[in-house]
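$ ./design --mode recover --in tokens.txt
reading tokens...
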């Protein structure tokens, strides 16, 4: 059947040789993640969202004037839709801030205080007393910082 179609369309088709699918090569190479790139992307997306919000506000004013002049229900419907989309853009801007904050938290090294529970001293009582006396002496030897006058 394919040969009949090919004959009618005047196309040479070799039915025995299947076509090989070539992968699409992208100009964009995958690079390791860099914090500076995330900051650049964040700033670009933030700038774009702010432009969209500003343009939406201008469009709302214009369409609102048109709706008031024409008193057409469709014009008011368009105003309502545009207001909804502007609110959505504002929400996306806030979400962008939240996501960037989360990314920065993930990138920051953890500075959790180490907590030691259930410390065990292995040694004799005499060794324990020597260690405690040494620590007390160190605490006494440390002079408090005097206030400058």
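writing sequence...
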């Amino acid at each position: 059947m394919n040969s009949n179609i090919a004959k009618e369309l005047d196309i040479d088709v070799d039915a025995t040789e299947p076509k090989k699918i070539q992968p699409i090569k992208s100009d964009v190479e995958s690079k390791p993640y860099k914090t500076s790139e995330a900051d650049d992307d964040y700033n670009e997306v933030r700038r774009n969202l702010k432009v969209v919000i500003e343009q939406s506000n201008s469009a709302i004013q214009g369409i609102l004037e048109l709706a008031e002049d024409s008193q057409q229900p469709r014009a008011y419907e368009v105003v309502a839709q545009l207001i909804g989309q502007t609110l959505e853009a504002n929400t996306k801007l806030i979400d962008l801030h939240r996501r960037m904050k989360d990314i920065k938290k993930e990138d920051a090294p953890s500075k959790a205080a180490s907590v030691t529970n259930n410390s065990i001293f292995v040694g004799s009582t005499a060794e324990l007393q020597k260690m405690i006396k040494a620590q007390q002496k160190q605490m006494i030897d440390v002079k408090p910082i005097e206030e400058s006058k």
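exit 0
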